[in-house]
TrEMBL record:
It is found in: Cytoplasm. This is Class I poly(R)-hydroxyalkanoic acid synthase. Residues 51-222 form the Poly-beta-hydroxybutyrate polymerase N-terminal domain. Keywords: Acyltransferase, Cytoplasm, Transferase. NCBIfam families: PHA_synth_I. It holds the Pfam family PhaC_N. It comes from Massilia norwichensis. It comes from the Bacteria. InterPro entries: AB_hydrolase_fold, PHA/PHB_synthase, PHA_synth_I, PhaC_N.
Length: 551
């Protein structure tokens, strides 16, 4: 216990936290009683009960010492996390500091699991015996290959190729500039809604999360629902783009895409969709246009998007003045935020699932990870321009200025999200650890402040990605909907909304398709060819930009 507690005690000191002797004594006494009981159970031949999926395989309980090792680890983990909860902190910013301590201690606890080491993992040891050493040889090969790649393999990457079996909805690139390509997808219905849909995906990761394989492609579903779909495919930045700013992503990115989609369709307005940071960019772009006296959106849909950054979920542990200032010193004047660093950050949010599970399977047991399109996409990292990334960190996550009317100047104008005038569809995922659904709901109080009936919120099951990619054809999971109400009856808090909501089985995609149809105008014959005389076909979808790998 003392050996494992020592680094935690040093870390608490670094945080300026203290643990009163009385609390420490109480925790220690409780620990010693449980440790004594565990030892007595083992000596009497009683197998410890292991209520943790990491130790669910029969090998852990077949050997008494392995069972004792796992049970001791779980007891130590309980003690260390109890220490993290019991610390006393300075009054200023207390909750944020406690969140950081919990996160840091959890990282230590997860790394120390006996499942992570060959010497203490009976599953890996049995595999070694059964394969006559082949599993160890294969595991070493896997580890060396991953060291060369600079990341842990989470999927059989040889099974997928963008444009071959992911990102394959038919379409044409009709525009490109330094920041993005614009894809116009081929219609498949006899008629289409006359108002097209512009999709603004996140520039962190690539757009084809929305167009994986045909059976789980949101793009394909939307086309089949009679939408003329335009998709932005952000370029994967290289060193030549190291000076790009947030203003560039708004002006030369989202606003340029809006203008091209409007010109090609011949419509004054388009339906606009934004996912995650793509939603933040899209909403900022529409606020910039509103400040210029223009309203190019017929509707706005935001999926797992933050506009109010009061609740940053687990990412909050990476955002404070010190960390942001450090990034600014490195990158604010130019350079790239490497995609591998972003991927490492996101993996650390769920280390048992996204790190240690693959250490155990790939390295200790010598297994090849299964083919999984979502995890293949997850490993296809993107860089970010340093100035853009630093502006985003400071002005949204750290200082939360986007929600304040006039607090930010973007593309030369003061932005006010409340000036965007169009119906809004907001989606949140119930188990999202990156954009908590309550934080996604906060957009309802920023958009259409005087026209509450124009806003609609839908809550889906599962997490940040899996909640969004929930195909209607599979009829899985569930979602929650509620009447928006108006005036004093309108739910203004997530709790009020959820209390009034009804759970519906299946995918929420049809709810969004209905919203798009309501704002899609008349049904008209589909365009006979992509683009126009001005915007000619450049290449087939998914285009070159999405295929570029991060350096």
């Amino acid at each position: 216990m003392a050996q494992q507690a020592a680094p935690v005690m040093r870390m608490l000191g670094d945080f300026g936290a203290g643990l009163p002797q009385a609390k420490l004594d109480a925790l220690r006494n409780d620990y010693l009683q449980k440790a004594m009981q565990l030892w007595q159970d083992v000596m009497s031949g009683k197998t410890p009960e292991l209520k943790d999926k990491r130790f669910s395989a029969p090998e852990w309980t077949a050997n008494p010492m392995s069972a004792f090792s796992a049970a001791s680890y779980l007891l130590n983990a309980e003690f260390l996390m109890a220490m993290a909860e019991a610390v006393e902190l300075p009054a200023h910013n207390q909750e944020k500091m406690r969140h950081k301590i919990r996160f840091a201690v959890q990282q230590i606890v997860d790394a120390l699991s006996p499942a992570n080491f060959l010497a203490t993992n009976p599953e890996a040891q049995q595999k070694l015996i059964d394969t006559k050493g082949e599993s160890l040889s294969k595991g070493l090969q896997n580890m060396l290959a991953d060291m060369q790649k600079g990341r842990i393999s989470q999927s059989d990457e040889s099974a997928f190729e963008v444009g071959r079996n992911v990102g394959i909805t038919p379409g044409t690139v009709v525009f490109e500039n330094e920041l993005f390509q614009l894809i116009q997808y081929t219609p498949v219905t006899p008629t289409v809604h006359e108002v097209p849909l512009l999709m603004v995906p996140p520039c962190i990761n690539k757009f084809y999360i929305l167009d994986l394989q045909p059976e789980n492609s949101l793009v394909r579903y939307l086309v089949e629902q009679g939408n003329t779909v335009f998709m932005m495919s952000w370029r994967n930045p290289d060193q030549t783009m190291g000076d790009k700013t947030w203003d560039d992503f708004v002006e030369q990115g989202a606003i340029q895409a809006l203008n091209v989609a409007r010109e090609i369709s011949g419509k004054e307005k388009v339906n606009v969709f934004g996912f995650c940071v793509g939603g933040t960019i899209a909403a900022t772009a529409l606020a910039v246009e509103a400040a210029r006296g223009r309203q190019p959106a017929n509707s706005l849909s935001l999926f797992t998007t933050l506009l109010d950054f009061s609740d940053n979920g687990v990412l909050d542990v990476f955002v404070d003045e010190t960390q942001v200032a450090q990034r600014e010193q490195q990158l604010a004047r130019g350079g790239l935020m490497p995609g591998r660093d972003l991927a490492t950050t996101f993996s650390s949010l769920r280390p048992n699932d996204l790190v240690w599970n693959y250490v155990q399977q790939n390295y200790l047991k010598g297994k090849t990870p299964p083919a999984f399109d979502l995890l293949y996409w997850n490993a296809d990292s993107t860089n970010l321009p340093g100035p853009m990334f630093c502006w985003y960190l400071r002005n949204t996550y750290l200082e939360n200025k986007l929600k304040v009317p006039g607090a930010l100047t973007v593309a030369g104008v003061k932005v006010d999200l409340g000036k965007i005038d169009c119906p809004v569809f907001v989606y949140g995922s119930k188990e999202d650890h990156i954009v908590p659904w309550e934080a996604a709901f906060a957009s309802m109080n920023l958009l259409n402040p005087k026209k509450a009936k124009q806003n609609r919120f839908v809550l889906g099951a599962s997490g940040h990605i899996a909640g969004v990619i929930n195909p209607a054809s599979k009829n899985k999971r569930s979602y929650w909907v509620a009447q928006a109400g108006n005036g004093k009856n309108r739910p203004k808090t997530p709790a009020e909304w959820f209390a009034a909501a009804n759970e519906v089985k299946g995918s929420w995609w049809p709810e969004w398709a209905k919203f798009l149809a309501e704002n899609g105008g008349a049904d008209v014959p589909p365009p006979t060819q992509p683009g126009t005389d001005k915007y000619r076909a450049i290449e087939p979808a998914p285009g070159r930009y999405v295929k570029a790998r991060a350096e």
